[in-house]
Write a structure and sequence with these properties.
five-stranded antiparallel sheet; five-stranded mixed sheet; disordered C terminus; 462 residues; alpha+beta; binds adenosine-5'-diphosphate; 10 helices
Length: 462
């Protein structure tokens, strides 16, 4: 169980508060019940003290007085009831009850009350756990008392079932709360799952909104508005790139044509020819960048696999490698193909673009006399396209960045070779649109290995 989840934290708080509330209620009932029983005992003792005082006023003979007092406690005796009774005059004690049957106190240990206690008619003796009521008649003092210890025991016994039921009630309440919190958070989980699936180039993407009128509906609506704003911004950006590259295309083509025409002029001085040739190279590079940007903005608009067909990846890869072998041979590089037939679904023209970009990079980075290995295989249900070379390889710190737009490891070298850092970004966009995963490795033995894994969902049996 994830202890940091909202569900767990809410449940922990709820259960703790429930436990505290339960303990507080139990304590409140305990104190109130004990208070009420003590008050009852006090009233009873006061009444009894007054009754005995009344008798003491009538009977001066101790034996007679004792008989009358015992009559008051009939059918039991003060001892059987666990009570204390004492009648005394300044000359001595006229009557005192014996040791109680419950053995909770010893009548001989009970001290004489102070004048204040006698005046207030009541006293509480904490160490003995007893309460006393007093009454006077003439110079006679009547003391009656009872232990409060049984009250505590009685109340505890009375509330014991409540205490025993507490864990069961707590468990039931927490179980119910667990289910309810889970249900209440379900829309949040759904929103999180949907948010996970949203990509910025999916212009119609939105989070599910359940019209409950609660905070979660408000959250989903706000998030949808935010997603819409981000999508608008991304779309504006994409359109800007598309428009800009479109606008640049014609002037670049015109410049290129004019430069080529000028270069055909034989009367040019060598210096002017060199400058014009360099300009032509730059214009060609700009044209390639513009082409790359146009391709990326089209891919961002979701045009990657507009034409999805099932085709043999190995045949496409081998054909493309053959077409590029001339370029490789120019550099003295050999392309070795090992391709097993495996079908995938997608846009063959786009997938071809991925293979071209990867092979082009491999050729560019291979040393003269090096070899490039192209492999197509069915690997555990995935169609795998792998292109490895024996070139300089890619530094470990650059590996996570090479698929970013305009990222180049060695800017100067890449520029000389006509690269703008868009080839891999285009390949990644195409792969993403095909549900394929593209990755790069740079093994210790040297060279670079690029792998494209097409997800099994897109695999169709031959
Ligand atoms: P570029 O057009 O500059 O080649 P890419 O997007 O194709 O841009 O590649 C990005 C960077 O990744 C390149 O600048 C290069 O440094 C590095 N890279 C790509 N492929 C290879 C490879 N096969 N071997 C070594 N480095 C590579």
């Amino acid at each position: 169980m994830n202890t940091r989840s909202l569900r767990f934290q809410l449940l922990a708080w709820y259960s703790s508060l429930l436990l505290v509330a339960f303990a507080a209620v139990w304590l409140l009932i305990f104190v109130a019940a004990r208070q009420s029983l003590v008050q009852n005992l006090r009233d009873l003792l006061s009444r009894r003290a007054r009754q005995i005082a009344h008798l003491a006023g009538q009977y001066s003979e101790p034996a007679e007085l004792e008989r009358e007092i015992r009559q008051l406690y009939a059918p039991d005796s003060p001892e059987a009831q666990g009570r204390f009774a004492r009648v005394s005059s300044p000359d001595g004690t006229l009557f005192v009850s014996g040791p109680p049957a419950n053995g909770l106190f010893n009548p001989a240990d009970i001290p004489k009350p102070s004048d204040n206690e006698i005046r207030s008619g009541f006293a509480r003796h904490k160490p003995l756990q007893m309460i006393f009521a007093y009454a006077t008649v003439g110079d006679l003092l009547v003391e009656v008392g009872g232990s409060t210890a049984p009250i505590k025991e009685d109340v505890s016994r009375m509330l014991l079932p409540l205490l025993l039921a507490a864990p069961v009630l707590l468990l039931l309440a927490s179980g119910g709360a667990y289910l309810l919190i889970g249900r209440a958070l379900q829309p949040v989980v759904r929103i999180a799952r949907s948010a996970e699936e949203i990509t910025l180039h999916k212009t119609d993407a939105a989070l599910p909104v359940v019209q409950t009128g609660d905070e979660i509906e408000a959250l989903a609506l706000s998030l949808n508005r935010m997603i819409q704003r981000i999508q608008d911004a991304v779309e504006n950006n994409r359109r800007f790139v598309a428009d800009a590259s479109h606008e640049l295309k014609t002037p670049l083509a015109v410049m290129r044509g004019e430069l080529e025409m000028l270069l055909r002029n034989d009367s040019l001085s060598p210096a002017a020819r060199e400058t014009l040739a360099s300009n032509l190279e730059e214009v060609e590079r700009l044209s390639r960048i513009v082409q790359g940007l146009t391709a990326l903005s089209r891919l961002d608009a979701g045009e990657a696999n507009a034409e999805s067909v099932v085709f043999d990846l190995s045949r496409l890869a081998v054909t493309t490698a053959d077409q590029m072998s001339l370029l490789a041979e120019d550099k003295g590089v050999k392309i070795r193909s090992d391709a097993k037939p495996v079908s995938i679904a997608g846009d063959p023209a786009r997938i071809k673009q991925v293979i071209v970009n990867l092979l082009d990079n491999a050729i560019k980075h291979s040393p003269a006399g090096g070899a490039i290995d192209l492999r197509v295989a069915d690997e555990g249900g995935h169609a795998l396209l792998q292109i490895s070379d024996e070139g300089s390889g890619i530094p470990a710190e650059a590996l996570p960045k090479i698929f970013e737009r305009f990222y180049r490891v060695d800017k100067a070298r890449s520029r000389d070779e006509g690269g703008a850092g868009l080839g891999l970004a285009i390949a990644k966009s195409i792969c993403q649109a095909h549900g394929a995963e593209i990755s790069a490795e740079s093994p210790r033995r040297g060279g670079a290995v690029f792998k494209v894994r097409f997800s099994p969902a897109r695999l169709t049996p031959d």
